[in-house]
Amino acid sequence: MELMNFINGEWQKAEGAEFTAVLNPANGEELARVQLSKAADVDRAAAAAKAAQKHWAKVPAPKRASYLYEIGRLMKERKEQLAQVLTKEMGKVIEEGRGEVQEGIDMAFYMAGEGRRLFGETVPSELENKFAMSIRAPIGVVGLITPWNFPVAIATWKSFPAIVAGNTFLWKPATETPMMAYEMAKIFKEAGLPDGVANIVFGSGSEVGTAMIDHPDIRVISFTGSTDTGRKVAEACGRNLKKVSLEMGGKNAVIVMDDADLDLAVEGILWSAFGTAGQRCTACSRVIVHKAVKEELQSKLLERMETLTMGDGLDESVKIGPVINKQALEKIHSYIGIGQEEGARLAAGGKIMAEAPYDKGNYYAPTLFTDVTPDMRIAQEEIFGPVISMIEVGSFEEAVDVNNQVIYGLSSSIFTQDVNRVFAAQRDLDTGIVYVNAGTTGAEIHLPFGGTKGTGNGHRDSGVAALDVFTEWKSVYVDYSGKLQRAQIDNEI
Ligand code: NAD
What we know:
Blueprint: E1 2-3, E2 5-7, E3 10-12, E4 18-23, E5 30-36, H1 39-56, H2 61-77, H3 79-90, H4 94-114, E6 121-124, E7 130-138, E8 141-145, H5 153-164, E9 168-172, H6 179-190, E10 198-200, H7 205-214, E11 218-224, H8 227-239, E12 243-247, E13 252-256, H9 262-274, E14 284-290, H10 294-305, H11 326-342, E15 345-348, E16 367-372, H12 377-380, E17 387-393, H13 396-404, E18 408-409, E19 411-415, H14 419-428, E20 433-436, E21 452-453, H15 466-470, E22 471-479
Helix pairs in contact: 1-7, 2-4, 2-6, 3-4, 4-5, 9-10
């Protein structure tokens, strides 16, 4: 199967039509070939999106929303097929694949509801016979750049609010996971979304991503990916005075206090550290544990880690799938040497699974480092694989400090039975998302998603907050006094 760009409602061959293979990370099998597009393809898609946006902005928002209801319905109807494609191209286990598709369905229905809200404000004017209100206005053509780890959910967090708000978009999926984008293009078409509202251009970040950022008709860039790439994207958008929303890396921690339910904490850690083979932006990659329960937590964790089954995510009994590619395997593995040199103790894992039946895929053994100190690189840098760094602390205050001593600020979690600590933690943990008595993952689509510090630049995906990325506030004053009234001058308050 050759995946072509989706522009103006049609499948289009890219300039030069160069292709690259899409590989199944579970076994190396070639699943498809995807185009590597050029700047000229971005021009073509941006022109189609610009032409379509003129009409789309005038379609009443409830009508725009009706397409999202249909998109959501089609996704629901095809949930299993979509989940299978997702698991094949990305590697996450099928249960999580279904969950990710469900997230997209939820987003479709939630944002469709916004078609009848898109609330602004009406406020009293300071002058007589004058009306004042704010409305959300669409921005125009928006550019969406997404990573491979959530090939569909993140795209829905961005594209659905963009659609309902009256924008048209150009989406560049990651080259590792174009098949879900291809499936979504089919759904957009079947849902009857007018041509040019949704456009997909496949290709590399350096070619297609850069061309999008530099394109004068693309007014917003909504990016999710690593902090290194995000910084480059922000710099280029800054030069172009382009609105940019960045959702980037994380170094998320689970805090386990001395009064925690340890069995529950172990389940929360396992799910958030090893789900998606540790490749979620919200993955737990640090466990900050009170010294009074450290030994017990560690032995319970090691015991449960041994029961985790690894393999092809399509097998329902598998709990840990492969990582995305060979480079990811090497990067994860490089941190084992780094951690050991820094003085951490490798308590489990720490190896590439090179023997049958794992040799054809990209499998990494679930790994636990103990005796980690907060300044070590394995406690500071995003490893993006199934690796936990366990750090011992002596108090709640120290746990919060350690949590906050990283450049990232995406997600954090605390296991405790003490309500006072719960409230202090949600106030003091410097992350965009805080969980209590749950792991670091599991966001619901109707709340904002994103992080502080090196994780973001103040914007949020998901929830009603996403509309702030894809709309401009417009303030409207209607003077029905029939005379010139001057604000701040002709009113006597
Ligand atoms: P990445 O930064 O390598 O790539 C992300 C996207 O940016 C891809 O589509 C890529 O092609 C594109 N890109 C690369 N270079 C570019 C450039 N110079 N200009 C424009 N676009 C460019 O990230 P990845 O490896 O695909 O994803 C993993 C990263 O994403 C992790 O750091 C993870 O934490 C982060 N992530 C963050 C969130 C969040 O919401 N905070 C969610 C998921 C993933």
